[in-house]
Prior knowledge:
The protein is an alpha/beta fold. It has two domains: 2-174, 7,8-Dihydro-6-hydroxymethylpterin-pyrophosphokinase HPPK (Alpha-Beta Plaits), CATH 3.30.70.560; 179-379, Rossmann fold (3-Layer(aba) Sandwich), CATH 3.40.50. Helix content is 41%, strand content 17%. The protein contains 13 helices and 13 strands. The strands form three sheets. Strands 1, 2, 3, 4, 5 and 8 form a six-stranded antiparallel beta sheet that branches. Helix 4 (130-140) packs antiparallel against helix 5, helix 8 (230-254) runs antiparallel to helix 9 and helix 8 (230-254) runs parallel beside helix 10. It starts with a helix and ends in a 9-residue tail after the last helix. Residues 1-7 have low confidence and may be disordered.
Amino acid sequence: MLSSLKMNLQKVYISIGSNKGDKLKNLQAAVDAVHLKVGTIKIISKVFKTPSLGFEADDFYNACLLVESYLKPNAILKKLLAIETSLGRTRTKAKGYQSRTIDLDILFIDEELINTKTLKVPHPELQKRRFVLEPLYHIASKFKHPVLEKEISVLLQECEDESVLEPINIWLKNPSKQHDFSGYNYIAIEGNIGAGKTSLATKIAQDFNAKLILERFADNPFLPKFYKDAQRYAFTLEMSFLADRYQQISDDLSQLDLFKDFIVSDYDIYKSLIFSKITLNQDEFKLYRKLFYLMYKDIAKPELYVYLYQNTERLQENIKKRGRAYEQNIDSEYLNKINSGYLEFLKNQTELNVKIIDISNRDFIKSREDYLFILDAICSHDPKASAI
């Protein structure tokens, strides 16, 4: 899951335009819909007033967007066409250009070359259209056309379209800015086995320029042994996790990254206490807890602790889906104990700022709306806004 998230994130340049009805309102509605359905809007250009090209009609308002999306190119196209339809555009087979409430065109998807019946990328006409190049220049002047091998700034200079564009003094609002993480230096995403904490932490890090800390559980040689013989390997496993988490979190929190805005991790140090209380006998746990507090007393705590709650049925589905061999026989009762352990810990927790989000009926990997639901819950300033 993690590698596919990194692999599929693409930069998509989109041209938007309207010359029918309330043009600014149409553009803003399109921007909002792209944010909801397609991906994170990174940059929005100025809006330009543009004469209609190739037919007599009212002037257009045009702009360009840079969007980061996990969707495949054809899925992006389908989403944009659906947005056009929802905003009142009706496509006809009539020849020639027509006025439209909204027009959404894919210009580039990274440096990809796509030539199918329904989608051509780069857009084959963009270098001929000043109403595309001018807004695009303001957000991507150095981007090089992968076919023409010229930067947008050069294509604009060479464009033979003599249309005169007029920038207007109203900016479109970027809905992505409503998710503000500036109040946090360190956020921990927690949850049961298979809850999706690594995937969510990775998405947040990529979308909001955060330093990502991922637990190194895959390197622990005792984990497969524990799932085969829990009683024999529980103490060894928990001690090895205790030492490794301490080393990792100490190193990562002490290494300041000036180019990142905050830190997001897919675990918190207190998970050591939660898991060990379940897996160890009473005497072992007393010893373990003493060592824990000795080691972690000076470790920085997250300013926000997010717990992703998944019901056991969904956890088992996710565990099977990701296919780690040593996890396939995890008992549902064990998962129930972990959920109960977390919720009991969080109920009595006074030192952490906690938000519990129930995602049992949501899939934030496949559904951007579900991902935005989680971001809304995380960024809400209402202390009672835990979505459970």
